[in-house]
Amino acid sequence: xxxxxEDDRHIRDVAAATECLSRFCTAARLERLRDxxxxxxxxxxxxxxxxxxxxxxxxxxxxxxxxxVQYAHVILDTAxxxxxxRLAQAKSAMGSQKWLTVRExxxxxxxxxxxxxxxxxxxxxxxxxxxxxxxxxxxKWAAQKVxxxxxxxxxGITEEMRSLCDGTFQIPMxxxxxxxNLSGSTAVTLAFVSSMGxxxxxxxxxxxxxxxxxxxxxxSVPQGPAILRREGLLIEDERILPTSKVVLGYNLxx
Length: 254
Known about the structure:
By secondary structure, this protein is an alpha/beta fold.
């Protein structure tokens, strides 16, 4: 089977699984899922580098969902986590997000390389003294696909990230506070990007939207994976039934 035939088969499998699970979902719920997936965007993606507090990460991901941003990246460099439980908690916060596509990277270089392969311009929020970040309102957010990097709550972005990104920006402060907290910075940045036309809602390719809809149905329909198994709709395809027992990104055992 060549790649084109394999892709066609995958599309058919996704369509069949979606049709099956749709029968176990209320019409109102299905309409809401379709409406939201049609508004998602990949014009802007967010990167969170070595977040210390998992609650902050969870709050940031919630803001991304509210603004329709589908893709987030989390850099978890073990060298920056002296306490192992912090690393485990960050991973847990990632897994708790049902609706976003969250990708984990072991380092800034791995994350930036992946984003640049996809054509993203990488901009990092930076408050380091002595640097010259551009005010957030002066960035031309709508000019290109942008990946926005938010650093650690205490230390900000790493020197590695600073050397790899295409530029930096900051949110100007008018009061005594020197900065917003991580979730506040993320929400404010999203508001600026949205107001300046950077969020191009509805730009996901059809295949991506269909795959997301199926993933969301698996999250919405009780025993969804078991239903698909019973109907013989999960085949030996790594994108549908990986050997790790993760179906389209969701752990069947968890």
